[in-house]
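Final report, closing paragraph on structural work. Over the funding period we assembled a curated collection of sequence-structure pairs, and we close with a single example.
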Amino acid sequence: MRATRLTVTGAALALLACLPPGAAPRAQGAAPGAAPAAPVPSTSAPAAAAPATQAPAADADPVVARVAGTPIHLSDLSAAAQALPADMRGMPANILYPMLLNQVIDRTALVLLARKQGLDKDPQVQVLLRRAEDQALQSALFSRDIGPLVSDAALRARYERDVAGKPGEEEVHARHILVASEDEAKKIIAELNKGADFAALAKQHSTDPGGAQGGDLGYFKKGDMVAEFADAAFALKPGEITQTPVKSQFGWHVIQVLDHRQGPPQTFEQAHDELRQAAIQEGMASLLKQAHAGLEVQKFNPDGTTPRATDAAEPPPAATKKP
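Its predicted structure, as stored:
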């Protein structure tokens, strides 16, 4: 019986492969024997020699099984496929289809058994169902309202508005000597002020791997370096050397700036992630403003009591006894 029930047509396999991830499944509680949706009428005139009867249009999301009258649609299998490991999703359709079908049939049978035994009325289960529903609604809201903001077209429009054609970020070309102590850094600064060669001292003293190349860091943006280093470097004019050693988590730096320049504008690919994050943040802010409009929000303590102004107050320190 199972082999007969799992027979699948080539058209159904193609539908399974082509059905987009996340396609909305139909309600599992549909009444058995419900009439199928009417096929979409063709807008073109029929050929003169067309037969009197025509095959109905294929259902875009056909019923592929029934369990006690509960229909299972192809989209249910597609949703189950998304939970599989990537290597299993790449299995041939004639192997993947019956495996998924059995899986969804078993799941549906278990759900029916749980309902038959009244587990859907259990208070703890109802809490879980409510949370799942809340999460689904929130995800649907995000998908509907924020999804369009992060489409390729929307992000490219944001790029043209906010990034393209505008000056790039300032960059400096600098080199440095990294040593372990402030005193050593001060001695190097004194030698440089007397005319010593920076590159030669970097090769001799610097513990940074770039010391072998004279400490040259090339051009960098302010955000590319730790704050202490970046603040000192960007404050220098070309040719200047820090007269006070700069302390960072790596040690003590002696920095010389060679040049300042305006960097090129970011390409769309370079700015993509930042643009996407900005679009999401704006979309979330708009949604939250809309969601909170007209709502009364009450907050309580962890024990359910109403907060008081004194709740956050620190108790006075305990008095110490005099010997």
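The longest strand covers residues 251-262. The chain has a mean pLDDT of 84. We thank the funder for supporting this effort.
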